[in-house]
């Protein structure tokens, strides 16, 4: 569970970070915005595939705070 808490803390630190990337191809510019939302952690951590850890049925944007409060 320590690894899960470390990942949740690191993800919470990323909430405030946003990357804006502009690249060009064939004389046209494209913008890419990368942000780290609260509900993205659920899917990027692969919780939808977990079988050995039971979590309550809560919205995905509450998982980070739930994990950090677990003992």
Main traits of this protein?
71 residues, 2 strands
What report would you give on this structure?
The protein has 71 residues and is an alpha+beta fold. It has one domain (2-69). Helices cover 35% and strands 23% of the residues. It has 3 helices and 2 strands. The protein has a two-stranded antiparallel ribbon. Strand 1 (18-25) and strand 2 (28-35) form a beta hairpin. The radius of gyration is 16 Å and the shape is elongated. The chain starts with a helix and ends with a helix. The model has no long low-confidence stretch (mean pLDDT 86).
Low-pLDDT segments, ≥5 res: none
Number of strands: 2
Q: Mind summarizing the main beta sheet?
A: 2 strands, antiparallel
Average pLDDT confidence is: 86
- How far from one another are the termini? 9 Å
SSE layout:
Layout: H1 2-14, E1 18-25, E2 28-35, H2 40-44, H3 63-69
Antiparallel strand pairs: 1-2
Helix pairs in contact: 1-3
Offer a quick outline of the entry.
This protein is of the alpha+beta class. It is 35% helix and 23% strand. The protein has one domain (2-69).
